[in-house]
Specification:
Elements lengths: L4 H7 L10 H19 L13
Organism: Serratia fonticola
InterPro entries: Phage_gp6-like_head-tail, Phage_HK97_gp6-like
Pfam family, one: Phage_connect_1
Length: about 55
């Protein structure tokens, strides 16, 4: 569920080579996640469930 830095750079139309904004993008992603959790009153979890047959 959590976007990667590469996905965040692509969404913001930033160069793949320039990593100067990575820390800021990480902070923004965390803030957006907390806002969504507060708005929905639900905890968002990373997809890590595995099923066995």
């Amino acid at each position: 569920m959590k976007p990667s830095i590469k996905q965040l750079r692509l969404q913001c139309r930033l160069d793949d080579d320039d990593d100067s904004d990575d820390e800021l993008l990480t902070l923004y992603a965390g803030a957006a996640r907390r806002k969504a959790e507060n708005y929905t009153n639900r905890k968002l979890y990373d997809e890590s469930v595995t099923y066995s047959a």
